[in-house]
């Protein structure tokens, strides 16, 4: 069910604003806000869950946008110095764009884990079968995945630095717990609750498969993925209710002030999964750029016709049976089944079949994966694991609309603000 979350639990605390010397004249209170101690009220269970989901969806949109720039999916033609440095893959721990991604993902992790702790205290023994807790575990698991895929290392709630394998391990633990709790909740439950529980189970299994894949455990990844129905899908929802609820990718491709462009690697492919408009548009520095159209994993995508705009209400599919099928196929290696799978994906967009084997088949499989999951936050983690295996696909050479060359950065870094405030890092 689509939920447009207008508030989050982390933004629900009441604040008093006073001005020195004016006594209570300018004292402001918000009777509709919540104090922290109120978050132990059982009546606020759904509010706490919505807070965790809202933080994830906001963070996911931001990560989708900027991980595309740090990978080979997109580049920017922007006037902001911090954005330009980040876009060049040549930035340090003071870079504001890099810092934003750490902040939003950290809030998503903390909101989910804090919500779980609060609900366990509220629910007591009933926590063992709580769909609310299972749901927060699943969303928290995905927040851990994005930290692992995107960051060189990252702390969790003032921990020491955690390398990607540790972050993926924590994600899998979240997903396993979500499956256990959601499965337990089905005993004697209504049909509607069973459907909701199964949705969480499938979401968690796709997430666990993704985490295991990125950690390099193909057998474990296959085990999770093989249990996911082919038609399963889970979306991050966006709306026009508030700026925070907009699909942030629209900020780079909107009708005026566009600055987000298809990378050369994704130009000229004539593939509707990565729509390319008929003409270029000027970026903020007046350089011609190819603003991407709405990709296939976004709501409202059409396989035919001109490229559609990514608008503020475009939802993004972030877990699916298709992703699970990719994981199963990759785990089995370059077999005849992989060739059949590749040709099935090509057929979706009316491309002719290929007849490949070995490394050529793997390269085509990776291309199809890149096209199917364009602008969904998958690519950066994929490029990092491909590079670790000897296939470095990160962009190099001259930046498309600047005289400068690309730098060597391949992952987000922990910002200086965290390094100086976290005694354990």
Q: Tell me what portion of residues adopts beta-strand conformation.
A: under 5%
Total number of β-strand segments?
A: 6
- Tell me the helix content: 40-55%
What spatial form do the alpha-carbon principal axes imply? globular
CATH class: Mainly Alpha
Q: Quote the average pLDDT.
A: 92
Number of helices: 13
CATH topology, by name, is Serine Threonine Protein Phosphatase 5, Tetratricopeptide repeat
Second CATH tier, the architecture: Alpha Horseshoe
Domain count = 1
Order of helices and strands: HEHHHHHHEHEEEEHHHHH
Biggest sheet architecture? 2 strands, antiparallel
The gyration radius over C-alpha positions equals 22 Å
- What structural class results from the helix and strand content? mainly alpha
* Contiguous uncertain segments of 5+ residues: 1-26
How far apart, in Å, are the first and last alpha carbons?
40 Å
What's the short version?
With 425 residues, the chain is mainly alpha-helical. The chain has helices spanning 45-70, 81-87, 96-123, 131-150, 164-185, 191-215, 218-225, 250-253, 321-332, 336-348, 358-372, 379-388, 416-421, and strands at residues 74-76, 233-236, 260-262, 281-282, 288-289, 316-320. It has one domain (9-13, 27-241, 315-395, 403-421): Alpha Horseshoe (Serine Threonine Protein Phosphatase 5, Tetratricopeptide repeat).
Can you put this structure into words, describing what you see?
The longest helix is centred in the first third of the chain and has 28 residues, at 96-123. The protein is globular, with a radius of gyration of 22 Å. It has one domain: Serine Threonine Protein Phosphatase 5, Tetratricopeptide repeat. It is 46% helix and 4% strand. The chain has a two-stranded antiparallel ribbon with strand order 1-3. Strands 2-6 form a two-stranded antiparallel sheet. Residues 1-26 have low confidence and may be disordered. The protein has helices spanning 45-70, 81-87, 96-123, 131-150, 164-185, 191-215, 218-225, 250-253, 321-332, 336-348, 358-372, 379-388, 416-421; strands spanning 74-76, 233-236, 260-262, 281-282, 288-289, 316-320. The chain has 13 helices and 6 strands. With 425 residues, it is mainly alpha-helical.
């Amino acid at each position: 069910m689509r939920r447009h979350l207008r508030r989050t639990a982390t933004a629900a605390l009441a604040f008093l604003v006073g001005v020195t010397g004016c006594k209570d004249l300018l004292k402001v209170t918000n009777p509709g806000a919540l104090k922290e101690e109120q978050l132990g009220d059982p009546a606020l269970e759904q509010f706490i869950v919505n807070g965790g989901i809202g933080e994830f969806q906001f963070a996911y949109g931001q990560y989708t946008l900027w991980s595309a720039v740090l990978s080979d999916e997109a580049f920017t033609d922007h006037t902001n110095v911090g954005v330009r440095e980040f876009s060049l893959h040549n930035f340090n721990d003071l870079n504001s764009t890099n810092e934003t991604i750490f902040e939003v993902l950290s809030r998503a992790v903390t909101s989910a884990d804090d919500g779980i702790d609060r609900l366990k205290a509220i629910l007591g023994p009933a926590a063992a079968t709580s769909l609310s807790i299972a749901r927060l575990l699943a969303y928290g698991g995905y927040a851990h995945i994005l930290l692992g895929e995107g960051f060189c290392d990252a702390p969790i709630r003032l921990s020491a630095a955690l390398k990607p394998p540790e972050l993926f391990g924590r994600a899998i633990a979240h997903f396993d717990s979500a499956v256990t709790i959601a499965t337990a909740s089905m005993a004697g439950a209504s049909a509607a609750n069973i459907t909701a529980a199964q949705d969480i189970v499938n979401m968690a299994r796709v997430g666990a498969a993704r985490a295991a894949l990125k950690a390099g455990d193909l057998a474990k990844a296959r085990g999770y993925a093989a249990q996911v129905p082919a038609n399963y899908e889970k979306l991050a929802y966006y709306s026009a209710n508030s700026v925070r609820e907009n699909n942030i990718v629209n900020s780079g491709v909107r009708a005026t002030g566009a600055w987000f462009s298809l990378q050369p690697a994704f130009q000229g492919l004539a593939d509707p999964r990565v729509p390319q408009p008929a003409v270029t548009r000027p970026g903020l520095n007046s350089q011609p750029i190819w603003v991407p159209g709405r990709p296939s994993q976004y709501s409202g995508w059409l396989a035919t016709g001109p490229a559609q705009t990514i608008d503020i209400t475009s939802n993004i599919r972030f877990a699916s049976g298709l992703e699970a099928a990719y994981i199963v196929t990759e785990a089995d290696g370059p077999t005849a089944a992989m060739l059949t799978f590749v040709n099935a994906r090509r057929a979706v967009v009316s491309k002719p079949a290929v007849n490949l084997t070995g490394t050529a088949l793997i390269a085509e499989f990776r291309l199809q994966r890149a096209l199917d999951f364009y602008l969904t936050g998958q690519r950066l983690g994929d490029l990092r694991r491909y590079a670790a295996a000897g296939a470095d696909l990160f962009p190099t050479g001259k930046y498309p609309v600047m005289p400068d060359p690309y730098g060597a950065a391949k992952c987000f870094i922990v910002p200086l603000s965290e390094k100086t405030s976290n005694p354990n890092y």
